[in-house]
Design a protein that fits this description.
There is one protein chain. The termini are far apart. The chain is 24% helix and 22% strand. With 120 residues, it is α+β, with helices and mostly antiparallel strands. Strand 3 and strand 4 form a beta hairpin. It contains two helices and four strands, in the order βαβββα.
């Protein structure tokens, strides 16, 4: 059952994510999502009472998918700094195959870009 999302411990998630990046070097993509997570596994009903609310701990849910393989992990607030350092170095090491996007200047007066030019 390769199509099911697998919840992993933080360190195992990072090592599996590294493997995903290695496999996708030649062909394929890795999709990453990160969002705040409240610990619920089922949707909250419209008429639920406040006693069902989860405690004060902040959680972060990370998901990664490549092809049919899907992995996820939940990072607790106390582990965020340690996890973020490992995650950032993993991304720096593996996001080397990105191509610079070619931008075509269609309009000279594009208001979204600054008008001053830096001189070298």
């Amino acid at each position: 059952n390769n199509n099911k999302m697998v919840l992993l411990e933080n360190d195992l998630f990072l090592s599996e994510l590294t493997k995903m990046f290695q496999r996708s070097k030649v062909n394929g993509s890795v999709f990453l999502t990160m969002k705040k997570y409240d610990g619920r596994t089922k949707p909250k009903s419209k008429k639920s009472d406040k006693s069902m609310d989860v405690g004060p701990e902040e959680l972060c849910l990370l998901r990664a998918s490549s092809g049919k393989k899907k992995i996820s992990t939940i990072v607790a607030h106390k582990d965020v700094n340690r996890f973020q350092l490992a995650y950032a170095s993993l991304l720096k090491a593996n996001l080397d195959g990105l191509k610079k996007r070619e931008r075509k200047d269609k309009k000279k007066g594009d208001s979204s870009r600054p008008t001053t030019k830096a001189t070298h």
